[in-house]
Amino acid sequence: MKKLSFLSIATAVVVCSAAVSQAATVTIEALDLRGTGVFGHADATLNSGPGNTTADPLDWDITYNNLDLDGDSTANDTVNFTVRASGGAGQRAWGQGVDTGFGSLNGVTFSVINVSGTTTDGGNAIVFDGFTGGAIGVGGNGDLDRNAEINGQLASVMSPSTGGFQFVIDAVDFAPTATVLYDNSGGTFGAVSARHHDLQFSAVPEPTALILFGLGTLGLAASRRR
Fold it and tell me: Of 68, 93, 155, 212, which has fewest CB within 10 angstroms of its CB?
């Protein structure tokens, strides 16, 4: 009987684990959160939201359906999570997003808490990888000129008057990060708000099941070598 080395065992377990796990990474792009609800996403259900109010924190409790986090080309996975805005002095949610008063957006940190859900076919736990983008929106009747930093990156809106109300968005992207800070707003005209966010989720295979599968497959391979 040919003996199998520890390296062979470890390699087989890793290979088998990879074969079982088809977990994918999914980014929910431009999740538009306002005091009046969640916009732009038919698959998002707002279980509870802050409404148009001034408060700290501001919470949006969301159920998001029809994701493919198994990596099996079937969009049948669901994740529950809460997006929280906190820390901004006088922060408010209103019809255009979140700000700290007309013309300002300072010290507001967005985070994701209370993540729950498992993939439908694989039974893998769904986790939040981080934010991968954010955007400011600027609105008003006149020559728009507002900016703010999003995790240290400058987002800026400059748009000449159209003769009526206009709303313009500028977005930035970044590597996955646990929180997003909107700060250091400036400019001369327009109401600026934190407008929308990109959120990345993935599924984590259950370790015990993968190891047992790997060892079982290894045992089968070993028996065939006898």
Answer: 212
Q: What is the pLDDT of residues 143-164, one digit of tens each?
A: 999 999 999 999 999 999 999 9
137: which strand partners? 169, 193
Instruction: Compute CA distances 214 → 11, 22, 119, 122, 176, whole Å.
Output: 9, 15, 20, 16, 31
The pLDDT of residue 219 is above 90:
no
pTM value? Answer: 0.83
Is the omega angle on the peptide bond into residue 57 within 30 degrees of 0, that is, cis? yes
